Amino acid sequence: MLIRLTRLAVAAGLLASTALFAQRPASDPVDAVDPFIGTNGEGHTFPGAVAPFGMVQLSPDTHVGPARETYDWASGYRHEDPVILGFSHTHFSGAGHSDLGDFLVMPVTGDTVPLRSGDATTPGFRSHKADEVASPGYYAVTLTDPAVRAEMTAGTRVGVHRYAFPAGKAAHLMLDLRSIIYDYPGKILWSSVRIRPDGTITGSREVRGWATPRRIFFAMRFSAPMTGHKLVSTEENILYKGFKGPGRGPETLDALSGRALVAQFDFGLLTKALEVKVALSGVDEAGAIANLASEPGDFDAVRTRTRAAWNAALDRVKIDAPQPMRTNIYTAVYHSLMAPSVWGDADGRWRGPDDQVHDSAGFTMHSTFSLWDTFRAEHPLLTLIQPDAKNADFVNSLVVGQKASPFGILPVWQFAGKETWTMIGYHAVPVIADACLKGIVGIDCAAALKAMVASADYAPYGGLGDYMSLGYVPIDREPEAASKTVEYAFDDWAIARLARTLGETAIAARFEKRAQNWRNSFDAKTGFLRARKADGTFRVPFDPTAINYGSDYTEGNAWQYSWFMPHDQGGLFRLLGGDAKAVAKLDAMFDYDNSQIDYSHAEDIAGLIGQYIHGNEPSHHVAYLYNYAGQPWRTQERLKQIVESQYKPTPDGLAGNDDLGQMSAWLVFTALGFYPVAPGSNEYVIGRPFVDRAEMTLPGGQRFTVVADGLSDANRYVGRVTLNGSPLERSVITDAQIRAGGELRFTMQARPNTSWATKPSARPFSTTRYRP
């Protein structure tokens, strides 16, 4: 029986639960997920089939076009689009940049088969859509033009299509090696396709795109024999003659290579649905064939395994909350578990940034690291809800990526094993330090520290040479200098934390000093972080609301970046003049009147609440900063404002790009009542819960429960907090306290508690302890 999870079906079918877990709805966690959340608006998610952290992310593409047109279709799909071009095997979930869309497949019926997808004026194999449904690991849609019901499922390295063709119509399948989501001239450097004697289709392509060059290979098998085929190069208009009839000799081998290939596979009149099983590899065709064999079974077998895998992964965070919130949170957990994606083959081989083939030697290689986004909450969340072995895979993948890098530095924004050099900082550092400091087993933290230091000392990268000599990045030599200065300083603090723990005192002392470099770009007179020139002067003119790409800040302005010293908020508050002035500045940020400001030129600026921008990451920790000024009830107010305005269980339910799970991880943490403001501190800052009850199964098997007594729209404030029955007087909970298991209980009330966690000793970690 098909599980059809349109948004309306989810809304109608799920029960709100505020009872104990023994009384929870019997439905599986996958039934609470709506993969269509974020597929419209700014979310950039996709609804297709993927296993947890799967290499194959099989989903419909509704638009490809020139680079200038692809931002809104960064995942290849928008829910509002009426037409599907086909189903490709690689996608990003919520990225702010587009690429991928490898090996587009589309069913066609009838005697005339077009070789292109077509457009609004030119006929092609694209089709209008109807009756879309999706759940984790499964997607289905009716293609109304060929009258085909299309279903998708995926394992870790395989994707399986199932097409129910109409009776009496000849069935065909198109394989388009030309299509790519980020479409511009010269995109396909080379591609190939061949039909092997046993009927297996294999091929590859090398792509010029965001990460250049990128190689990807595939192997494909059908559940029914072909009755004919065509392999065509549309670039040179060369047609390789296919064959007709029920079979061919085993000696026959059809192959074609070029830069604009499309293949047509014919199946005649089918009496049952056609299944198409596809495996990917970053290494070679042999790797793709081996990956195909590594996950046996037909469509239903793969779907059943993947559904079970999703149930197990999602069930590590059991949620009781009213239905809309429960759907939001479970979908957020789902989106948090899609990347980093597996990149190593089943035999352990993987292709690195040096374009050489390596062996992972005992762990599973992962890629798709959007580190500027995900170091903040996504990776800290995974350390709690994924096994140590999985988190060790992530860290080990980063470390071996540094060894394979031609520049000897850790990944910055990497996918398919290739570096894009997108965004700033060396944020693999806090991911690694956070995992090591939390005691994740399976990591050589001493070797990881060496990789971290090598990245932080690589002078040619992003103005690091000037940063090391001047103590800041100068804007007249390097763009986005103010942002780079503070982000480097935070990463340096993470290095110092790990070095101090490992007894590397000289390294610790050097990077503790560097971690204070944020002060060198902070202008105490204006109260803002500002860009300085090499001569030491601040650049003028200065407008704290200005957002211009390539200027002083990265995807933001002075309002957002003036709070980015997560490791030293106490030091910042001193410079601002104390608690009262810090709170006043926070309020000014949230309450700012933007009516006279136009940010339409800035794609990533979405989800504005004054000058707080929830749709982009630099703001994500800011609501929690009232705690550092001894006013946690103000954090509670702001969190309610953010959650209610930025998240909905609808296709346009994400205010900004999900960014490979960061927007989602923020919601998961916030719903549980705490957030990792400074990954590497081993502390979580307490906010307020948005669930009646939640239970996390931790990597060691312990269970940690969050309970919110009296939670309602009226009872929005925290009156009292207890940990395992004892009053919790600080506005933080430590990682060790969570990992030990137990219960964090909030008593909610209608009025703010202005005496809880107000003393300096009750506030979160800061390098500089502020004393009012």
UniProtKB/TrEMBL annotation:
<dbReference type="Pfam" id="PF07971">
    <property type="entry name" value="Glyco_hydro_92"/>
</dbReference>
<dbReference type="InterPro" id="IPR014718">
    <property type="entry name" value="GH-type_carb-bd"/>
</dbReference>
<dbReference type="InterPro" id="IPR008928">
    <property type="entry name" value="6-hairpin_glycosidase_sf"/>
</dbReference>
<feature type="signal peptide">
    <location>
        <begin position="1"/>
        <end position="22"/>
    </location>
</feature>
<feature type="domain" description="Glycosyl hydrolase family 92">
    <location>
        <begin position="288"/>
        <end position="749"/>
    </location>
</feature>
<keyword id="KW-0378">Hydrolase</keyword>
<dbReference type="Pfam" id="PF17678">
    <property type="entry name" value="Glyco_hydro_92N"/>
</dbReference>
<dbReference type="InterPro" id="IPR041371">
    <property type="entry name" value="GH92_N"/>
</dbReference>
<dbReference type="InterPro" id="IPR012939">
    <property type="entry name" value="Glyco_hydro_92"/>
</dbReference>
<feature type="compositionally biased region" description="Polar residues">
    <location>
        <begin position="750"/>
        <end position="772"/>
    </location>
</feature>
<feature type="region of interest" description="Disordered">
    <location>
        <begin position="749"/>
        <end position="772"/>
    </location>
</feature>
<dbReference type="InterPro" id="IPR005887">
    <property type="entry name" value="GH92_a_mannosidase_put"/>
</dbReference>
<dbReference type="GO" id="GO:0016798">
    <property type="term" value="F:hydrolase activity, acting on glycosyl bonds"/>
</dbReference>
<keyword id="KW-0326">Glycosidase</keyword>
<feature type="domain" description="Glycosyl hydrolase family 92 N-terminal">
    <location>
        <begin position="33"/>
        <end position="281"/>
    </location>
</feature>
<protein>
    <submittedName>
        <fullName>GH92 family glycosyl hydrolase</fullName>
        <ecNumber>3.2.1.-</ecNumber>
    </submittedName>
</protein>
<dbReference type="InterPro" id="IPR050883">
    <property type="entry name" value="PNGase"/>
</dbReference>
<keyword id="KW-0732">Signal</keyword>
